[in-house]
Amino acid sequence: MSEPILSLRKVNKKIGKNHIIKDLSFDVYPGEVFGFLGPNGAGKTTTIRMIVGLTNITSGEIIVNGNSISKNYKKAIENIGAIVENPELYPYLTARKNLIHFGRMSNNVTKEDIQHRLELVNLDHVKDEKVARFSLGMKQRLGIAQAMLHNPKILILDEPTNGLDPAGIRQMRDYLRKVAKEEGIAILVSSHVLSEMELMCDRFAIIQKGELVQVEDVSSEEQADIANRHIFEVNDVEKAKDILLSEYPDIAIEIHDNLLQVDATKEQIGSFITYLTSKGIILYQVIREKQTLEERFLQATNGEVS
Ligand SMILES: Nc1ncnc2c1ncn2[C@@H]1O[C@H](COP(=O)(O)OP(=O)(O)O)[C@@H](O)[C@H]1O
Ligand SMILES: [Mg+2]
């Protein structure tokens, strides 16, 4: 993979006696939508505030495009576009005039840049309407266009789907993926609603009580070396179970509703199928159960959600 655009290295945050973020490390790469997930109070906003320099890091380091946020703030922050709280927009100005206004704060923002951003976030058709009349989703999108005016290499959004209806969430997902792909930038998006992030992100980190639980690809359950639940439909479940256990005594296997339930990797499943068949068991079908992000989170946290 290419160099990470954002790296957290053993980041800690203490406020008074509270140890809010504990040894947090992860990397975000160009072109990916990275989900930063965890229940309310887990420390997502605190982490994002450290990344964008709104609050100090107690120990550890945050590197943005090769620059330490604490040692070389100006160079580091140039690479970041962020919406941490609500996007700051002027309700009495039109979408286009808002962008013109904010564009004046950065160098070299042209009319064409502004037009391009409006198209990218699907607001071209309402660019001359006042922001006061916009829906929350439209305001979020304009906020993103604004955060991207200075051509950042990473866009950071703290819970951008909060308050959006399902249609708004779907739109957000579509254009964040489009932005990451077309502009080749990284997007870090936090959320406490895992189900909303499943189709939006390429990879994700889960934090709980300020600690990293896991980082993985959304599609990791497709990977050959990860054990997934498989359901076997066979002519004789009891016999099939005994046969498998006699050859593979350590596998996790159960019978449910006259079906065999086996947790194993793709490679192991291949061997099981061959072995069962060689012993005369008839296999009608084998299905890999797809786990949702929610289920994987509960598994990773032993069912604790906060
Ligand atoms: N300024 C602060 N002073 C003391 N505690 C804080 C402060 N900001 C956040 N916290 C605490 O840090 C923890 C993480 O909060 P936060 O980062 O807002 O979580 P999240 O964004 O994941 O919901 C919470 O327990 C919260 O109460
Ligand atoms: Mg938060």
Descriptors:
10 helices, alpha/beta, Alpha-Beta Plaits, 6-stranded mixed β-sheet, elongated, binds magnesium ion, binds adenosine-5'-diphosphate, Rossmann fold, 306 residues
Can you lay out the helices and strands and say which pair or pack?
Blueprint: E1 6-15, E2 18-28, E3 33-37, H1 44-51, E4 59-64, E5 67-68, H2 73-77, E6 80-83, H3 95-103, H4 111-120, H5 136-147, E7 154-157, H6 166-183, E8 186-191, H7 194-197, E9 203-208, E10 211-217, E11 228-234, H8 237-247, E12 252-256, E13 259-264, H9 266-278, E14 283-288, H10 293-300
Parallel strand pairs: 3-8, 3-9, 6-7, 7-8
Antiparallel strand pairs: 1-2, 1-4, 4-5, 9-10, 11-13, 11-14, 12-13
Helix pairs in contact: 3-4
This protein binds adenosine-5'-diphosphate and magnesium ion.
Adenosine-5'-diphosphate binds near residues 20 and 46.
